[in-house]
Amino acid sequence: MQVVYEDNHIIIVSKQSGEIVQGDKTGDEPLSETVKQYIKEKYQKPGAVFLGVVHRLDRPVSGLVVFARTSKALSRLNKMFAEGEVHKTYWAIVSPPLIPPTGGKSGCSATHPPIGGGWEEATHWLVRNEKQNKSYAYDREVPHSKKAQLRYRVLSRGDHYSLLEVQLLTGRHHQIRCQLSKMGMPIKGDLKYGAHRSNPDGSISLLSRRVEFVHPVSKETIVVEAPVPADNLWQALTSDLSEK
Fold first, then answer.
1. Which of 26, 35, 145, 154 has its CA 20 to 30 A from that of 111?
2. What's CA 193's distance to the chain center, in Å?
């Protein structure tokens, strides 16, 4: 865990892949408890520490997680997330390396924009299977489906993989993982959604890279970025982005 922003009302940390945000049936210590202990020790707080969970990241995903340190911030952040006022940007390493578009609209077979090009938007209808903990994407509305929209662009390209920047327009279960897979661009390491092999550390190559929102109390604009993983492929695909 790495703290990237904190004040009296909010704390934002960059979680490692493999960490869970909230407790689950595994019994592993969740990130929320780690953050509570950090606050308790740093500020020498007696008794229980308040910490509100306002959103989650899948266990194999790394990057930014926002927590509320006060009940006022928690209620306001919950409303902001629900109304789409918190803007999150993700980076994803996908295969195969993408080629420039030949025309057409995004959908089942999304166009692949050139590096540094404009945004492509993709729309699907997702059905969640609770037993499998997996979502399935369809090109048209089907029973029990929910509309899912995102936009993406190519940041860089290697011999075997491309780096995408992704912005969610809706918030659905496993949305990025499911939609990119549907478009023939599975995330590296994501066996559940079509990757050919796992990553050695069990992660998937999806990073919650950036978060931007108006502070629920101070009303200042907060913009925070997560560090890029130390993995060699991540470093290679992002090495030329510092000037962009």
1. 145
2. 15
